[in-house]
Amino acid sequence: MEPGGQLDMQQLLQAAAAMQSQLVTAQQELAEAEVEGTAGGGLVTATVNGQGELVDLTISAAAIDGGDPQETAETIADLVLAAYRDALRGADELQQETMAPLAAGLGGGGGMPGMPDLGAFPGFPGLPGAPAGPSPDDPATDDPARDDPAGEN
User: Which of 18, 19, 76, 127 is the most buried (most CB within 10 A)?
Assistant: First the structure.
């Protein structure tokens, strides 16, 4: 920050560019990562990338019962869905691990190095250090429905 409490725009732009670069890198890592999910004790394996796109599906021959093709088809469909959902859970966890540091940089946990704490500035309500909003004692905000949310009066 500059003297007088003004944001250094150059510093803010540099921090935004660094954040964007980190985001692009994280998205590339997720696109290249692969997560497996299984079902039926390994009879079906689904592989998704870090963005949740199905990239491979393996069905074991042991999952197929030639004597009852209808039942086999239904069982395999259920196993494919279960394996895919298992893989998506893993991909979701990977996304959270990969993106958490970036979310923290946006005010979720300590901020980015060199980035000012925007919560202390007027105009950023809801952030720590910012005013919560108009005072309930302010006559400009006198709204009967506010005092009686059920609308009983």
Answer: 76
4 is a domain residue:
no
Query: Where does residue 26 fall: left (phi above 0), alpha (psi -120 to 50 degrees), or beta otherwise?
Result: alpha
Q: Is residue 1 situated within a structural domain?
A: no
CB atoms within 10 A of CB 58: 13
Instruction: Write out pLDDT tens, residues 64-97.
Output: 988 999 999 999 999 999 999 999 999 999 888 8
On whether both 75 and 138 belong to a single domain, the answer is: no
Model pTM greater than 0.70?
A: no
